[in-house]
Design a protein that fits this description.
The protein is an alpha+beta fold. The chain has two domains: 98 residues, 2-Layer Sandwich (Double Stranded RNA Binding Domain); 131 residues, Rna Polymerase Sigma Factor, Chain: A (Orthogonal Bundle), CATH 1.10.1740.10. A five-stranded mixed β-sheet has the order 1-2-3-4-5, covered by helices on one side. A hairpin with a 2-residue loop joins strand 1 and strand 2. Helix 6 packs across helix 12.
Length: 239
């Protein structure tokens, strides 16, 4: 379930199944939450549990925002009722967050805006050094043009790994943070021409972290080899 690039939604169920049409209604009802969150990058984890003995549905919403996680919960006889109750409460909490966000969230948003303004030309995604590197098929130049994002992407990768026990257990063994970072850039290089022009570059790069990490977990040897080769190419001195 996905509403927009900076507002990602994941749904988990236990003891129940959610039909496609109901999932669509749930996604539509999250619009007020997405609006309240605004431009802040966020991830919403929805958990729906059915208790057969009581017949009740227990729903929890965890909205991860920069510097803070908002949580709501409800237990009712109907799944939709419990979900809508959680959504209403979360909308109010998100609105308060938007009015008075943590200081670090504001600073992070300002840094991303500055990076976007400096790296990508105002005219759009088809101009500037990043787009020129992609058009020329020059991955090394692409990485150089995005060098100011390096630390930020690495931190985002680290946070994603912390959310995934499977990934965290493999760090330092079959999984290296540097390989995940490189995988993000490789995917960005391949998909840059298709990047939505109305999405900030930092938000788009952030959206590539999860699929890049999952690719490495599914095919660790192949993806790690690709990332290592790309890193070697990038670090090779010019003749």
């Amino acid at each position: 379930m996905q509403y927009k690039d900076q507002f990602r939604v994941e749904v988990a169920t236990h003891g129940c199944e959610i039909p496609a049409d109901e999932r669509a209604r749930m996604a539509a009802s999250l619009a007020p939450v997405a609006d309240a969150v605004g431009a802040f990058p966020s991830r919403l984890d929805v958990k729906c549990i059915h208790h057969p003995q009581s017949g009740l549905y227990h729903v929890t919403l965890h909205l991860q925002l920069p510097g803070q996680t908002l949580v709501t919960a409800s237990e009712e006889a109907y799944l939709d009722s419990a979900f809508q109750t959680c959504v209403r409460k979360l909308t109010h909490k998100a609105a308060l967050y938007q009015e008075n966000p943590p200081r670090e969230a504001v600073e992070a948003a300002e840094r991303r805006e500055t990076l976007d303004r400096d790296v990508v030309a105002p005219e759009g995604s088809d101009t500037g050094p990043v787009a020129e590197a992609v058009a020329a098929g020059d991955y090394r130049a692409f990485r150089v043009a995005l060098i100011n994002y390096e630390d930020w992407v690495r931190r985002r990768v680290g946070r994603w790994i912390q959310r995934d026990p499977q990934a965290e257990a493999k760090v330092g063994k079959s999984l290296r943070i540097g390989d995940v970072v490189e995988e993000v850039y490789l995917n960005a290089f391949e998909q840059f021409a298709k990047r939505p022009s109305n999405v900030r570059l930092s938000d788009w790069l952030d959206s590539l972290v999860d699929p890049s990490l999952k690719a490495l977990l599914r095919h660790p040897d192949l993806e790690s080899q690709n990332a290592s080769m790309a890193r070697t190419l990038r670090e090779t001195p010019l003749a």
